[in-house]
Amino acid sequence: MEEPRTPVALESTEPILERAERGSHPLIAFLRELIETALIVLVAMTLVNTATARFRIEGSSMEPTLHDGEYVLISKVSYWFGSPQRGDVVVFRFPHDPSRDFIKRVIGLPGETIAIRDGKVFINGRPLEEPYIRGPMVYTYGPVTLGPGEYFVLGDNRNASNDSHNWGTLPRSAIIGKAWLIYWPPSRWGLIQNPFGREMP
Questions:
Q1: Which of 33, 108, 181, 195 has the fewest CB within 10 Å, making it most exposed?
Q2: What pLDDT digit, counting tens, does each position of 62-94 carry?
């Protein structure tokens, strides 16, 4: 009678892989990890820079909301799937010199008629209540009706701001993103709120 055969165990590939890894040169393993880490950091930075930007406030045109020397974080993705709303603080390329970036508050939306008189903004004939501004306007403007894709932007320090009442409407294509966070100095850290929420005032 034939003797029963003893089964031969197949060697797992795991020890082979382990031995290969242990046998690799330490410098090569270190360089591989370094390259992988650098690629991860590069991808992360690319995603962050695509979605956000940093902006330094210069001047007093947005006081009392924003002050000279403060740094704010800009969300570029805020308007990828939506439109600027009244009360949003936006950063944009200055229409008359695209190499310069401005920051102002959205006041008028496409299709609305804007006028400024008696120290107040009027939208379609209705006064806009604005408790966040430095003081009432001493100038008059309009009435002007905004076209499609046009916005009317003003600084919160109305009488010391170079804005739509000086140079006209802002095209949607010039808007870079929405300012949403003051991150420097630490004492001023906080979200930049839209005083109107999502409702039409």
A1: 33
A2: 999 999 999 999 998 889 889 999 999 999 999
What is d(CA 132, CA 65) in angstroms, rounded to the nearest whole number?
7
Could you tell me which residues come within 8 angstroms of residue 43 by beta carbon, excluding any fewer than 6 positions away? none
CB atoms within 10 A of CB 13: 8
Residue 10 has pLDDT above 80, yes or no: no
pLDDT single digits (tens) 132-144: 999 999 999 999 9
CA torsion sign, 149 to 172 to 152 to 199? positive
Rounded distance between C-alpha atoms, residue 76 and residue 97, angstroms = 20
At 39, is the secondary structure helix, strand, or coil? Answer: helix
Q: What is the DSSP letter of 132?
A: T
Residues assigned a catalytic role: 61, 104
Count, residues in the chain: 201
Phi-psi region of 45 (alpha: psi -120 to 50; beta: other; left: phi over 0): alpha
Give CA–CA dist 105/194, Å, rounded.
9
